[in-house]
Amino acid sequence: MAPMIYTTVSNGVTLVILALSMALLYRQKGSYFKLVQPFLIAAYALLCIALMAELVIDILQTAETALWFRQLASTALLLSGLTLSAAASAITKSPSRFWRRLGLSVGNTMNRWLFAYTVYTGILLVLLWVVQPFEVVSAVTLYGRELLIPRVYLWYGLMILVSLALFAAYPCRLMIIHGRVLKSPGASKALVSMAVAWMVSGIILIGLRGVFRAFGLEVGEVANLVSAAVFSVTAYYFRKTDVLQSLFEETEIKAAKPKYDNALLKRTGWTSGSLRGKKILLEYEPSSRFETFTKEFVYESLSMSVVPVVVTRPGSPVHLSLREDSQTKFLLLSRAVSNPKQGASNMEVLLPEGDSGIILGALDKALNAQGGSKLCVVVDSLSDLLISWGIKQVYQFLTQCLVMLSGPSVSGLFLLNPGAHDSQVVSALRGLFPTIVAVSSDKVSVVKSFEDTSGTEKAV
Q1: What's the N-to-C CA distance of the chain in angstroms?
Q2: Which class in CATH covers the domain with range 2-241?
Q3: Which residues of 288-300 are buried (b: 16+ CB within 10 A; e: fewer)?
Q4: Exposure string (b/e) for 371-407, b if CB count within 10 Å is 16 or more?
Q5: Which of 38, 89, 314, 350 could form a disulfide with 341 if both were Cys (CB 3.0 to 4.6 A apart)?
């Protein structure tokens, strides 16, 4: 009786681990791996099916049911490998390329591996149900319980080992290669760790269990428990690696001519390329075309292959003027969220408005993703932050932000409506910036510049 209790408890714990991991995956709303959420949930569900089939075999202990449910369990395990291959392809390719090329495309080496793995798995599934390559034998569990188990024939077992090798060669190897070239340490560690966890789980579930069964020893309960615990690494990193790493990872901007003639920007007297490294306080009147100046600033950065990151509120004039640009990334401040959440598009992330630490952390991730250079940051607007936070917190935020963005290839534009605040507050903020530009309804003024502190004024 005791061995049966041990087996039941071990399998019960395994089911709990898988169910909790699947629930964590389902409940997560924002992650670097959001695109592959359905595949990962499907893989966990298939593992649960395989485990429940094993439980039925242990309980019923008849030759007929043992063979049928072993076929079901083996089918679920093989299909879980295919879903993880699909997940690996999705993670390491852009969404559009993934959906267009995942299929059975063989356009490059890695897709040939996918093609081979998919076809080979199909062959295994056909043989599994047509030939039924099992024999029912008696075995002893680690807990001393004697039971009937279906054991695969040697030739089919060797074919399963080849499938395991293909699994390591395609999805796992693909994840490791991609993880090693990522600039984000968090995403890189997550990809490599998930790939290793998948390989270890496969070796335990298929390799070691098959070897022990060949010697009449059943280690299924322990193998299931250990592999489920190892595989739960997937759910852990899915939740830990947030949407900000997805937003900023490996951004490459192709240099292009500005989409507009940059009329307002030209009136500052700055030539193309001279914006690189500038940290500008843009003082504006609400009736002015400040959003146009901001758009020109962003497009000028894009023309220099610099990644633009805009911190603003959803639906603000700056957001509306730039949201159609496919290369501009948005950190949208909202009171409706307490943690980073995916926005309406894959170029938008919602951040809690009241947490300056999260905003600074997001900008730090953007900077790290670009290797500390080629970044353009727009903060719209300091006036809104002053109302929400107060001068002390805004001053501290700006001090830390400007230090973070102090690199010579990092530019910044910070918007302020000086008419909404008293002169002491405006003066305190002005002292932080080497360059100040004022935009009103009829002119653009370079009020202060590191290169020329006398100030110039140019009519629009």
Answers
A1: 90
A2: mainly alpha
A3: bbbbbbbbbbbbb
A4: eeebbbbbbbbbbbbbeebeeeebbebbeebeebbee
A5: 350
